[in-house]
TrEMBL record:
Lipoyl-binding domain segment(s): 18-77
Organism in which the protein naturally occurs: Methylocapsa palsarum
A Pfam family the protein falls into: Biotin_lipoyl
The name this protein goes by in its record: Biotin-requiring enzyme
Domain of life, source organism: Bacteria
Length: 79
């Protein structure tokens, strides 16, 4: 099982401690491959795609419109 966490490097200034999950490109329970775009998040006004680090079945933890912080767990990929 692999955790999909939010990279703390996406926050440039640290002035806005929260971001938001804009949308998921995959459904809960979908199977993804390493490198697939899974979701889009908005941090400090910029959109970033979240890429699957490995393949597996998606278990979404942070739903669309959820507030997120650096290091937040977004999803888990189950082998």
């Amino acid at each position: 099982m692999a955790d999909v966490k939010l990279d703390e490097g996406l926050w440039r200034s640290g002035m806005l401690p929260e971001g938001v999950v804009e949308k998921w490109f995959v459904a809960d329970g979908a199977v993804v491959s390493a490198g697939d775009a899974m979701a889009q998040v908005r941090i400090e006004g910029a959109l970033h795609d979240i890429i699957a680090p490995t393949g597996g079945k998606v278990r979404i933890v942070a739903s669309s419109n959820a507030l997120i912080e650096p290091g937040s767990l977004l999803a888990q990929l189950i082998d």
